[in-house]
Amino acid sequence: MSGHLAGARLLPWLTDDGRRCYAQDGGWLALYADVLEGDQLAMGYGLLDRAAEIVNSGASEAELRFLVERLSEALRDALRVAECRGERVADPDDDGRSDDGNGPDWAPPAEAFG
User: For residue 20, what pLDDT is reported?
Assistant: First the structure.
């Protein structure tokens, strides 16, 4: 997993100067990122549904340009979400055990236990 920092999770936004943002896995910022990723994907689906209506309605050139800009933004967001989630997919060569072979190399957050 190229670019992945141990114990960190890639966030679905960039810094003001275009660099990647990372947060500690399982922290509140990572949980917020989960919500934002869902919102970004939902907006993309909504825009995609609306796009067919706009194209079929005989939209003007300006309306179509606006639509293409929004679709480009939605695609950029969806690709960033895919990259973020792809970095969290387990390594197929990883057996899930810690380096010493005793127990899992992760622990669920305390909230998982109520």
Answer: 87
